[in-house]
Specification:
about 130 residues, alpha/beta, Nucleotidyltransferase, domain 5, about 30% helix, rod-shaped
Length: about 130
């Protein structure tokens, strides 16, 4: 009488457990990159203060991406130098940045970067009219 050799079998009873453990392992060890946005420190909610006009410098970005600093056209690369000169003349100066709703976000970020490189800490983000 011939003996039949039994072929090896993989137990399938714990396959679901193994798949679940692998899924949990990869979920726990995987990092998901989140958009960080702009790193701005916002003041706490509180009362509004009236600021003298001489201490406000308006920085406007129009729909075409042109930048105006106190109604004077300015190249983005020149913002840093001009802002540093203005801050040297008036240390209480606040820069109010206002953009047109159709302006490119990249232009807005470049302007804020120039302000940060000029060490401008008093920046106001003005609301745009809809």
């Amino acid at each position: 009488m011939k003996k039949r050799v039994k072929a090896g079998e993989i137990p399938s009873g714990s396959m679901a457990d193994i798949a679940f453990l692998l899924l949990i392992f990869f979920l726990v060890t995987t990092t998901i990159d989140m958009d960080k946005g702009l790193g701005l420190v916002l003041p706490p909610k509180g009362e509004e203060k009236e600021i003298p006009k001489k201490n406000i410098s308006n920085l406007l970005i129009n729909a075409r991406g042109d930048v105006l600093l106190d109604k004077e056209p300015l190249q983005i690369k020149d913002i840093r130098q001009v802002v540093m000169e203005k801050m040297a003349a008036n240390d209480k100066l606040i820069f109010s940045v206002k953009t047109h709703p159709k302006a490119k976000y990249q232009t807005y970020v470049e302007v804020l970067d120039q302000l940060k490189m000029a060490n401008a800490t008093r920046i106001s983000i003005a609301e745009t009219e809809q």
